[in-house]
Amino acid sequence: MTYPIRRVGLDSKGLEYLGSSIPSLNHPAMISPASAATSSNSPPQDTLPHSGDIDEPALPEAPLPQPPRLWHRALFLGLAALMLLPAVPPTVALGAGAVLGLTIGGPYVRQTALTASWLLKACVVGLGFGMSLPAVVAVGRDGVGVTAMGIIFALAVGLVLGRLLHVERVTSTLITGGTAICGGSAIAALGPAIGAGAEALGVSLATVFILNGVALYLFPIVGHALHMSQHQFALWAAIAIHDTSSVVGAASVYGREALEQATVLKLTRALWIVPLALGAAWWHRRSAASTDSAVRVKMPWFIGLFVLASAARAIWPVGEPIYSLLATLARQGLVLTLFLIGAGLSRATLRMVGVRPLVQGVALWIAVATASLGAIMTWAV
Questions:
Q1: Distance (Å, rounded) from C-alpha 333 to C-alpha 120?
Q2: FRET partner for 228 with CA separation of 20 to 30 A, picked from 10, 46, 248, 327?
Q3: What pLDDT, in 10s, does the model give residues 14-29?
Q4: Residues 80-119: pLDDT tens digits?
Q5: What is the rounded distance in angstroms from the CA atom of residue 31 to the CA atom of residue 197?
Q6: Hey, where are the domains in the chain?
Q7: Strand pairing partners for 261?
Q8: What angle, 0 to 180 degrees and rounded to 10, lies between the N-to-C axes of helices 320-343 and 301-315?
Q9: What sign for the dihedral angle of Cα 122, 140, 307, 316?
Q10: Are 191 and 177 in contact (CB under 8 A)?
């Protein structure tokens, strides 16, 4: 018996991470050039192209996805508005967003991710108005050596763990780079540099996302239990928590001084994205004998704006009331950002993470957190 053949497109929900949208794994932007070439040159009847199309017997047409219902949109927007109330802490915001994402999902998937990405950057710049430039320089100068040692330790341990656990090389590199520097931002920069495919990007981003959420709740509890000072906690959060959003979220729960110092230290750590991505691209071309052109690394431009905001406060102190207002709005905006990031979590994200990559991510994170905690409690005041 024969069946008429039709083309069926596989669709999957987009993944949102740290304010940056990861399109459907079948989206053209997530397919490497080599995979695309292979897909275009292979007969569709004999292979499974990377675009996600498959051949199967004709079935009744599935109904098209329905737009979000009015109550769904109203619930999402209502919760988002509540996040602007000063009484809502960052932990509640992330938890509310995660519950929404894991149960009924967010009604505005891509719009939420884009908004969270830009809102996070704007809030980081706004926090700069709350710190004078001399304080930023002092904290950044003192934290350069600490962050450098933390990055080297994380890279070395992460790559060793990847080999021991037999995690796929590209996925292991992405998880290691994300843990060492800046979570999702580092993964997004490293991915094109080492030719990462959609699956490796999705698995590594999902792994880091889960650990970010845990850190936001766990770190303040441990800090209070150990009676860490504001400076000690700021150092620990900036070194051991992956993404900027969770760093500032955990630090804001711990205290105002911890928030200011952790923000500067985290941005200092994030600057290492550029040399890491360039070095990874060079090594990838060398090991693979690739003739690809030079990789373009996206610069974290908002860090420069953060410094300019701090400079404005130091140069024009007459604007103190405005600067204080902007810094306050930025801190509250971060609460909304965490809600939007939490709403990007989905059951598809959790299913994507395999056992071995998750074990590598958790083990590396524990190693970095415990080693940095021990060093800070011993030498930092």
A1: 8
A2: 327
A3: 333 333 334 333 444 4
A4: 999 999 889 888 998 999 899 889 888 887 888 889 889 9
A5: 6
A6: 107-146+205-272+296-379
A7: none
A8: 160
A9: positive
A10: no
